[in-house]
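Quiz preparation item.
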């Protein structure tokens, strides 16, 4: 009799623990779902706002929008706080969420000064194309491009093929802008992207502008004195061939 009672007690304890585990699992799942669906009201740029512009002078350039909480940048501003007396510390583009790092007093605006003989030029890169958050002002990067190239075929016809190749090497990064929503027509692939500003010469500007207009750009962050060489472009025909 005692053994049966003991078995019954153990069975009840096991059943209770199982029920408790199910309850905790459901609560955790609901908590994760609530966190994933949480949204915030934020200020979004509706029209381009040049650096140094007072927000009071361009009231129609900002609008209130709802965004997923886990998709907004750090320091996002509450629309209720207002921007009285504040200016844009850098050029803001349509779709960009306004956050604390891009807002300040008029005295905080500084000019971007590229090195002598070079230009400062900005290009949009999704996170996967810019080494995530590891590219920062002072970094040196190389830019690879994937574009559609044309070549004469064996019978004289024109053949097109996607080609990936090193476009520009050893560019100095001057600034990395905050995340903005870039449309697919921009050449940056669409979605959330950051504006990366380089110090470039005229030829590099021209190549980067055209490559982003017709293809996709990728940044590569290398260590000191990387062994850079101009290899043959990679296409579908030589994708699996060794390159080094």
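Solution:
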């Amino acid at each position: 009799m005692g053994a049966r009672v003991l078995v019954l007690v153990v069975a009840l304890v096991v059943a209770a623990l199982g029920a408790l585990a199910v309850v905790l699992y459901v609560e955790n799942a609901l908590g994760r779902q609530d966190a994933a669906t949480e949204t915030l009201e934020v200020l979004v740029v509706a029209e381009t706002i040049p650096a140094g512009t007072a927000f009071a002078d361009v009231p129609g350039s900002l609008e209130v929008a709802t965004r997923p909480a886990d998709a907004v940048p750090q320091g996002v501003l509450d629309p209720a706080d207002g921007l009285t007396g504040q200016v844009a510390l850098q050029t803001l583009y349509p779709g960009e969420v306004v956050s604390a790092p891009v807002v300040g007093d008029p005295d905080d605006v500084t000019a971007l000064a590229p090195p002598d003989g070079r230009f400062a030029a900005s290009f949009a890169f999704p996170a996967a194309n810019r080494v995530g958050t590891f590219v920062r002002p002072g970094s040196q990067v190389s830019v690879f491009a994937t574009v559609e190239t044309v070549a004469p075929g064996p019978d004289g016809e024109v053949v097109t093929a996607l080609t990936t190749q090193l476009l520009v090497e050893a560019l100095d990064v001057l600034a990395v802008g905050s995340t903005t929503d870039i449309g697919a027509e921009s050449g940056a692939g669409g979605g959330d992207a950051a504006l990366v500003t380089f110090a470039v010469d005229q030829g590099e500007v021209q190549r980067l502008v055209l490559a982003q207009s017709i293809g996709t750009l990728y940044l590569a962050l290398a260590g000191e004195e990387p062994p850079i060489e101009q290899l043959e472009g990679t296409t579908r025909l030589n994708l699996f061939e060794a390159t080094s």
